[in-house]
Recover the amino acids of this structure.
């Protein structure tokens, strides 16, 4: 099975900082990758699908890139409401594995 | 509006069985794949199982294969997860999630609030 590895596992940044989270697949998955945001005590919410397509209603400061095995989620200007854990997920075929998550905190 | 409501969680002894349900509304249920995703306390998301819109194809994580069974009743707009031979490591919040497409190659665009399953003696 394909493994999904996220890095870093946590980070601390200031308001306005550019934040980058990476996700690596152990084998190529084309662009079958989604990013989710889970705020403390809340349900996960999809931010990006097909590696780079922004879900309707998601702020434009979020963006995704990559294809094959290496993917990136970028927050161009971190806001206080972005404090959350972010997960990548492959969905080219089952198992629909999630990455281990990246916890984003405010400095 | 899409609404997913899980039920059936609770405290169960190791080796026991439990059936979770997810009542769906606000979309054409039979047109979309549905999935269960779980989250152990303080841990990350773990995909558990998926069933395509027609119900004919089902997929499972290795950790639950042979113990859990996913099913759906499209006439009742309801998704199920039958969990047998439960273990302590199955303790988690179980989320019902709607796939964006009818088949297995899809991300999840809506999630329920989750139901807590605690396996303990």
């Amino acid at each position: 099975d394909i493994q999904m590895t996220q890095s870093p596992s946590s980070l601390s940044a200031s308001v306005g900082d550019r934040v980058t989270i990476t996700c690596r697949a152990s084998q190529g998955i084309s662009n079958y990758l989604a990013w989710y945001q889970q705020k403390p005590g809340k349900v996960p919410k999809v931010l990006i699908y097909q590696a780079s397509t922004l879900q309707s209603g998601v702020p434009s400061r979020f963006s995704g890139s990559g294809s094959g095995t290496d993917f990136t989620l970028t927050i161009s200007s971190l806001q206080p409401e972005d404090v959350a854990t972010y997960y990548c997920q492959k969905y080219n075929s089952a198992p629909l594995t999630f990455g281990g998550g990246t916890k984003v905190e405010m400095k | 509006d899409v609404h997913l409501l899980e039920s059936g969680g609770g405290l169960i002894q190791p080796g026991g069985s439990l059936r979770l349900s997810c009542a769906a509304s606000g979309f054409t249920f039979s047109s979309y794949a549905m999935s269960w995703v779980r989250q152990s306390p303080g841990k990350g998301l773990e995909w558990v199982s998926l069933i395509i819109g027609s119900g004919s194809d089902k997929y499972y994580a290795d950790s639950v294969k042979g113990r859990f069974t996913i099913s759906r009743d499209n006439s009742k707009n309801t998704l199920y997860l039958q969990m047998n031979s439960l273990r302590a490591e199955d303790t988690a919040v179980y989320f019902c999630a709607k796939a964006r497409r009818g088949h297995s190659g899809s991300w999840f665009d809506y999630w329920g609030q989750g139901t807590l399953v605690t396996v303990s003696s």
